[in-house]
UniProtKB/TrEMBL annotation:
GO MF annotation: an example: protein dimerization activity
Domain Anoctamin transmembrane: residue ranges: 290-875
Protein's UniProt name: Anoctamin
Gene name per UniProt: ano6
Domain of life, per lineage: Eukaryota
Record organism: Austrofundulus limnaeus (Annual killifish)
GO biological process, one term: calcium activated phosphatidylserine scrambling
Domain Anoctamin dimerisation: 64-287
Length: 914
């Protein structure tokens, strides 16, 4: 047993966990009265009552108690304290008392338990948990679980897909293995009218996922220790304190072998074969079966991921076409030809880009200019506008699809008040306040002032880490400046480094600096992510959100805000800061008073932004796949290797699952975060990298199967949870979509060289031929480079040691300034202001057009399909009719009873008078 667990257990002993006064518990935790244990009833005699101990019955695939009748709804695992080390016996005995009290509480609440030792290690005990029918009915009503009342009698409208069924059927799971789920109208379960629901078969009425969800609800609220007027409760704290080693629902079978038990659904095997297996990467997902097996929360995640991947197909095709168009035209670009032409670019001497750099010829950037033509062309503008419309269609169509899933999965009326408070919240409820809605006094864990203090501490911590990210960005900028200066000097002095001579032609200082800085930036990003993750969880725990949904939403905003700055800040720097404030060769701008600010390549910073995006996106995808595939697989292999020679098929079902990895309660949160960050890369900077949707599509096709394989084979079965939608991620996606319009317009205006080229093409490149006027790009390079007299370099400038070239008197630099000798020499000329005006006009026009289009699409496309609205109304009508008829029967029964009593009394009175 590790020391940290012992320390946590000691902390629990001192009252640091789950302390709450007995007088307030009934107001905060919903316990059905018939199953609420009194503390007098759980006395020492009850605590000493042992859970029934049985021996393993050699049925490894069984999902039942030894009697074969009672289904296992949950498994608890602990180590026998009587077989632990003697020197820590007092700690283990305290754990034993808590466990026995907890199990006695469960049995008093109607739960049935059965314990069986491990076949590998006799110190490990597995406690099977079974919920009888009466307990299921009670807690199904508490949790508002919906069950069928009538088959869906509204006919489905025929779709156009039926004409292509002979083709599309190959892209769906095998219908003979995974049959379509029947459709029912449903209503929240009520125990008093259980006979009015469609089926009353006690064995199949509640699905295993429903039973597991109800079992976890009870386990999270059962007490395990009472001291005076303070009691402690919840399986979560027992797991943290080491009282139990694990708690989980069972998989129904092995993922690769069919169960030998009769009537076993083998849903895990079906999911592996038709969903998680790599050979089915092109098939649609069996979402109904995923939801049935894992619950709505995991089902909605895979539904969103699959829908996002399907929409990416369209974006990837258009993006690939844009890339191929640029690749095809890179050799015919006029301005690229001028850069590479020995008579034009070969005759232009460029000014040094740093204080220790040398003069260089423009045609030395020929390869970079050709590469830039692949990404910087008119098709990029069209693609950026298309992606702005695409992201709107994606979000609107997802709302419609989500509405269909909400109805099909019975989450339309899943309201916040239906979600129970977190046990951690309930344990800290020591203050009273009046509920502004109900007017009833309720318990809360903090006052208004305390709430402000907690929120302020959280905001301050998040801001501190954001400033830390910005500091790391500044450090990387300093690195870029220092490395660029060093490489420029080293590559200049070929006599010092003759071994670099072969690569000088292909590797420029700009390229080497950009690649190495991008790699370092990625490493820093990953390190900061790992550190901040723990900080964000600590802050959210400190804030004490009421429900699990509130907890995840709060953590979501913190993590996304941090990772937004962490992942995108370097891209924003390259796109909108680098090369924008460099001055001119005679009066450069210095950073920190020492380093001369970076300049962009003569073709602009777009190619560097593309490099940064490709490295971060590719590195992030590779790193995440290593984490999601290799690490769980190695842990499971090591666990089986250390468990002895007992082969898997001889182990019982609960012990096979115990050796799997436990998915944390935030496991799904990280999956969403990974995809939303990718969504930002695809939309925010797509104008600089049209291949981003292609890379995202390839990654997501693997991501779906990797997640499916991981959940199905490498992790224990998660406790099913209900969810209506994707939560706080929906407004985050909408915010990213709105921001993407502005960022792409600004990338085209300020990072790309497209607007200056268009201004030159339409305004300054007119050549008359007879009666016709021809616009051409010839002479663009010459017009985009300004002149500088090398005699104007000041000797007292910081570190100017560049050798004077021979036979030239001027050099060129990227800007629009008056030439030397002009009355306003080195000031911005009229062309500069024309270009600035064109850039601002472009941003305003494009943003207004795209935002107007987004508004029209959002208004035209309804969030809920008309057919779903009809079904929801029909279901509400049937529910009301059922309630009305039930109430009429109850009233009629009571009236009949009253009349019978009156008649009996009247007869009795008459007989008495006679």
């Amino acid at each position: 047993m590790s020391d940290d667990i012992l320390e946590r257990d000691s902390a629990s002993e001192n009252g640091d966990f789950n302390d709450i006064q007995l007088g307030m518990i009934d107001e905060e935790i919903v316990y059905p009265e018939e199953f609420l244990p009194t503390y007098e009833s759980i006395n020492e005699k009850t605590i000493l009552t042992k859970v029934q101990q049985v021996e393993y019955n050699n049925r490894p695939d069984s999902l039942f108690f030894n009697d074969g009748q009672r289904r296992i709804d949950y498994i608890l695992v602990y180590e026998d304290e009587d077989k632990q080390a003697f020197d820590k016996r007092h700690v283990f005995q305290r754990r034993k008392r808590r466990r026995e009290y907890f199990e006695a509480s469960l049995m008093k609440m109607g739960i049935e338990l059965e314990a069986v030792p491990s076949v590998v290690d006799d110190k490990v005990i597995f406690v099977k948990v079974h919920m009888p029918w009466d307990v299921l009915c009670t807690y199904a009503e508490v949790l508002h679980i919906k069950v069928p009342i009538k088959p869906n009698d509204i006919p489905r409208r025929p779709s156009l897909g039926r004409f292509f069924k002979c083709i599309t059927k190959h892209f769906y799971p095998d219908e003979d293995l995974i049959r379509k789920e029947p459709e029912f109208f449903t209503a929240p379960f009520e125990k008093r009218r259980a006979k009015d629901f469609l089926s009353i078969n006690r064995d199949l009425f509640f699905t295993p996922s429903m039973r597991s969800r109800m079992a976890f609800y009870i386990l999270s609220r059962a007490p395990y220790e009472v001291r005076g007027n303070i009691r402690k409760f919840g399986i979560t704290k027992l797991l943290d304190g080491g009282v139990y080693k694990a708690a989980y629902p069972l998989h129904d079978s092995r993922f690769n072998v069919k169960s030998e038990e009769e009537d076993c659904p083998n849903e895990r095997l079906l999911l592996f074969k038709e969903w998680a297996h790599p050979k089915n990467f092109y098939k649609m997902q069996p979402l109904d079966l995923i939801r049935k097996y894992f619950g709505e929360k995991i089902g909605i995640y895979f539904a969103w991921l699959g829908f996002y991947t399907m929409m990416l197909i369209v974006a990837a095709v258009v993006g690939l076409g844009c890339f191929l168009y640029g690749y095809h035209n890179q050799e015919t670009s006029t301005w690229s030809k001028e850069v590479c032409d020995p008579e034009i670019g070969g005759q232009i001497v460029m000014c040094p880009q740093c204080d220790l750099c040398k003069y260089w010829m423009l045609n030395s950037t020929c390869d970079t200019s050709k590469t830039l033509c692949v990404f910087d062309h008119f098709g990029t503008l069209v693609f950026a506008v298309f992606m702005s419309v695409w992201v709107t269609l994606f979000l609107e169509f997802w709302k419609r699809y989500q509405a269909e899933l909400e109805y099909d999965w019975d989450t339309v009326e899943f309201l916040e008040q239906e979600e129970p408070p977190r046990p951690e919240y309930e344990a800290k409820c020591i203050y009273e306040r009046k509920n502004p809605i109900t007017g009833v006094k309720e318990k809360v864990p903090y006052t208004t002032c305390g709430r402000c203090v907690r929120v302020s501490i959280g905001i301050g911590t998040v801001l501190f880490w954001i400033f830390l990210i910005l500091a790391s960005i500044v450090a990387i900028i300093v690195y870029r400046l220092a490395v660029f200066l060093t490489l420029s000097v080293k590559l200049r002095d070929s006599t010092e480094l003759k071994n670099l001579e072969p690569i000088k032609e292909y590797v420029t200082p700009q390229m080497a600096t950009s690649v190495t800085a991008s790699i370092i930036s990625f490493v820093v990003i990953m390190i900061l992510n790992m550190l901040y993750e723990r900080v964000a969880i600590w802050i959210t725990d400190f804030e004490l959100p009421r429900t699990m949904r509130d907890y995840e939403n709060s953590l979501t905003m913190k993590m996304f805000l941090f990772q937004f700055v962490n992942y995108y800040s370097s891209c924003f720097y390259i796109a909108f800061v680098k090369g924008k404030a460099v001055g001119h060769p005679g009066a450069p701008v210095y950073l920190l008073g020492k380093y001369r600010n970076e300049e962009c390549d003569p073709g602009g910073c777009l190619i560097e932004l593309t490099t940064q995006l490709s490295i971060i996106m590719g590195g992030k995808a590779i790193w995440n796949n290593i984490q999601e595939i290799l690490i769980p697989w190695l842990k499971n292999r090591y666990s089986y290797f250390c468990s002895g020679k007992v082969i898997e098929k001889e182990r019982p079902r609960w012990e096979q699952d115990y050796k799997l990895q436990d998915l944390s309660k935030l496991g799904l949160f990280y999956e969403y975060l990974e995809m939303v960050i990718q969504f930002g890369f695809v939309t925010l900077f797509v104008a600089s990298f049209p291949l981003a949707p292609v890379l995202a599509l390839i990654n997501n096709m693997f991501e779906i199967r990797v997640d499916a394989w991981k959940f199905t084979t490498q992790f224990r079965r998660m406790t099913p949870e209900k969810a209506q939608d994707i939560g706080a991620w929906q407004p985050i996606l909408q915010g990213v979509a709105i921001l993407a319009v502005a960022t792409n317009a600004m990338i085209i205006a300020f990072t790309s060289d497209m607007i200056p080229r268009l201004v030159y093409y339409w305004s300054f490149s007119v050549y008359p031929y007879g009666d016709n006027v021809d616009h051409t790009m010839q002479g663009y390079i010459n017009s985009s480079l300004s002149l500088f007299n090398i005699n104007d370099f000041h000797n007292n400038s910081l570190g100017i040691t560049a050798d004077e070239p021979r036979n030239i008197s001027v050099c060129r630099y990227r800007d629009y300034r008056f030439p030397p000798g002009h009355p306003r020499q080195y000031e911005h000329n009229m062309l500069y202001w024309h270009v600035i005006a064109a850039k601002m006009a472009f941003i305003i026009v494009v943003e207004h057009i795209v935002y107007f289009t987004k508004f029209i699409l959002s208004y035209v496309i309804p969030d809920v399909p008309y057919a779903v609205k009809e079904q929801i109304k029909r279901e509400k009508y049937l529910t009301q009719m059922l309630l009305h008829e039930t109430n009429l029967k109850l009233v009629s029964k009571r009236l009949k009873s009253s009349l019978d009593e009156e008649t009996s009394e009247a007869k009795g009175h008459e007989e008495h008078e006679l």
